[in-house]
Amino acid sequence: MHKKRMAWMLCLVMLLAAFAPLAASAEAVDPLVVTVFIGDPFDQPTSDNKIYKLIEEELGITFEFEFLAGDLDETLGIKIAGEDYADLICGSNSAEKLIDAGAYIDLMEYIDPESTPNLWAHYEPYFKRVQMPDGGFYVMANYGRIYNDPIVNYINGPAFWLQKKVLEWDGYPTITTLDQYFDLIARYAEAHPTTDEGLPTSGFEILCDGWRNFCLLNPVQHLIGHPNDGGVFVHWDDNYRVDVFHNKDYSKTYYQKLNEVFNAGLIEQDTFVQNFDQYIAKLSSGRVLGMFDQYWNFQNATDALVAAQKYEDTYIGLPLVYDESITEHYLDQTIININRGFGISVNCKNPERLVQMFETFLSDRWQTIFHWGIEGEDYYVDENGRYLRTDEQKANADDPIWVNANKAKQLFYNAPKKEGTMDNGNSWDPGLQPEMYFDKMSEYDKNFLTQYGMNTPAEFANPAPPNQPYYAAWQIDLSAYPDILDIGTKLVDIQARDLPQIIMSKPEEFEQKWEAFSATHQAAGQAEYEEFMQGIILEMNERLR
Amino acid sequence: MVSVTERNKPRNNAGARTALRTLLRQRQLMLMSVPMLLYVLLFNYAPLWGWITAFMDYKPSRALFDNPWVGFANFEWLFHQPEFYLAIRNTMAMSAINLVFGTASSIVLALFLNEIRFTPFKRTVQTVTYLPHFLSWVIVVGLAQSMFATDGVVNHALMALHVIQKPAFWLGEGRYFWWLVGVINVWKEVGWNSIIYLAAIASIDPTLYEAASIDGAGRFRKMISVTLPGVRATFFVLLIMNIGHLMEAGFEIQYLMGQNLLVDWSQTIDIYVLKYGITQGRYARATAAGIFKSVVSIVLLYGANRIAKRMDETTLM
Prior knowledge:
CATH architecture of the largest domain in chain A: 3-Layer(aba) Sandwich
Strand content of chain B: under 5%
CATH topology of the largest domain in chain B: MetI-like fold
CATH superfamily of the largest domain in chain A: Periplasmic binding protein-like II
Order of helices and strands of chain B: HHHHHHHHHHHHHHHH
CATH architecture of the largest domain in chain B: Orthogonal Bundle
CATH class of the largest domain in chain A: Alpha Beta
Oligomer: heterodimer
CATH class of the largest domain in chain B: Mainly Alpha
Strand content of chain A: 5-15%
Shape of chain A: globular
CATH topology of the largest domain in chain A: D-Maltodextrin-Binding Protein, domain 2
Distance between the termini of chain A: 85 Å
Helix content of chain B: 55-70%
Largest sheet of chain B: none
Number of helices of chain B: 16
Shape of chain B: flat
Radius of gyration of chain A: 26 Å
Distance between the termini of chain B: 9 Å
Number of domains of chain B: 2
Number of domains of chain A: 2
Helix content of chain A: 40-55%
């Protein structure tokens, strides 16, 4: 009897299963599954995610995401070797490899003022920049396309960061030079060998993990008053002569300072061997007084500290220089993020439909949905037409679990997007909407800024002056010049290997180790690399002026 | 196996006919080996076709034969890189350390386990020691990193025992790296590797032990004179196989633990290939390094096998 019932149940299930696809195909839009590879680690969205559901309802498109797990270059290398491309690929920091391998279709053939007006208006002013030397436009830049006025509330890029409690303890001093910075750290650490929770205080952290070793390698250019050009310093006043600056005398000053600070016990040696997760965990514990980093890189730690309401342990970015005679230049004007974002792969069966999808997504309605969410659910509009969020909506937006179910972060982060200000005056990015930024600030932070007579953390730095046409050198793609790329890889290897040793050396060994490093660095083809880069930058200035 | 083929070596026409007859007689066996043969051909021999890219200026965006031939340029490049020699040194050194530590520790563990008469305890120890084998390297390295950190358990323990005066920087000093890898490998694999020796011990004829007892051998004597010679064949077979793998020191552990500042000690051939080959999109270079590795491995394997043969030991071929 029991068996018979089971058999009937099975039959029923089979029948239902057979008819299920019929039911689905009754929908108006053609369903399409788009495979997506993203060269950044993300969490998978929940299966009933609100925004992806809306996309499926209106456009019939669903996504199968594959996120980065492991090293990007290796993952891409293996994908390229096997021509194993998803429909949409975001190559993140190594998209040039995909372009070089012919993995992307040329979007110039799909974008025109008639059929894709939004995409055309979005990228047309930047075609000279986003087009590769062969004239192809392969990757739709994810960030840096500003509409109307940019909004700058805080330093998102590089700075020397310092816990607010340290400045508070010292009576809110103005810190502008490297020496003042480390002097304050030393005094605070001496007075507070442990945190309130009993954890040992760490004076200064230097993240050296993988590609994030810019925390070790990049500071010097800023200390001499230059914005972020990556691993090189470009002499704007000397025919754009290029320095791979790590073994120059003006770099020695910095690393000698770090050596001094290390020997004073303010840098823990484990900082040179910790990985990114350990670094974030350490910052999140509140026991790290300062570090050089870019804000987006350690934002997770800030979020954790804010969630724990340890506002005094969060960081303020200080644009430090060597001495008062140097004008700091930390904030730069937003540049279009060339080759970072989605491209459509040659394996994609219907590129037209995906281009049209991005065209639709660039409409103001969809941009608002991606940035802000659904009106009434995720934000509201007040009587003055300002977009705002209730406390609950704000809390939701900060909750990663809620975000996974209610935002299309995985897709939107790398999709073409509008930034700056909407035509109606609201900020595209909710995080930058001035009212919300202030509202969201804790009482502690408001008071902190009041002490300095400032309204936003960005006021610690000078407003961004106009960029040089070529800027920034870190965007320059060298994949077409393998020999130069080899030298570059080797130079960074030497820097990342030797600089930690130099910082950790005994003071009396410093000179000798520095000389040895400098010589090795020089011998690895430094001059050739510098000369080549100068040529490229001069050519770019000519082309983009 | 060797003797079988010797006997059937065809010497003349008559011999060829005999061979054919043997073939026919063993047709079921032949048929059974076909899938294995196909597998090896398909997955181990067919990909060798790709070796030709090592002699090209290869780019995946071009059709295979549109790539210009460059002769041995990729090999020349490799052998002009001081880092490549360091990588070979590191690989061989870590392999050797792993081989010696790994073999010694698993034989000793197997010998000791075999002496335990209380079965529940024996089973427990065996399970506990081989469980780490199933942990992923990411977890093992994470554990090791916190244990060997400056304020980690190892430093605390060694300082409490007055072995060292101040904490050692285990994770940041090149000279410790190989040994650290050796120690962690032993921790992870000792139980697993001892299983095969335990199996070998179990197959020793018990009468040998009885005979030894009658001759007045004690427990320790029996271990030395009966058990150890009993695992000798297993030991040599494994040794030869491992020598063939000397060019592979593992990948994950060096990759996960080898921070930038340790690169001179931690970079193995595989990591080097990944960094200067695949990561930079230079597949030809990676292939060239792969060919080099394979050739060296084959030479080592045959060399070890020959030596073992000369010593009249059990051999692979």
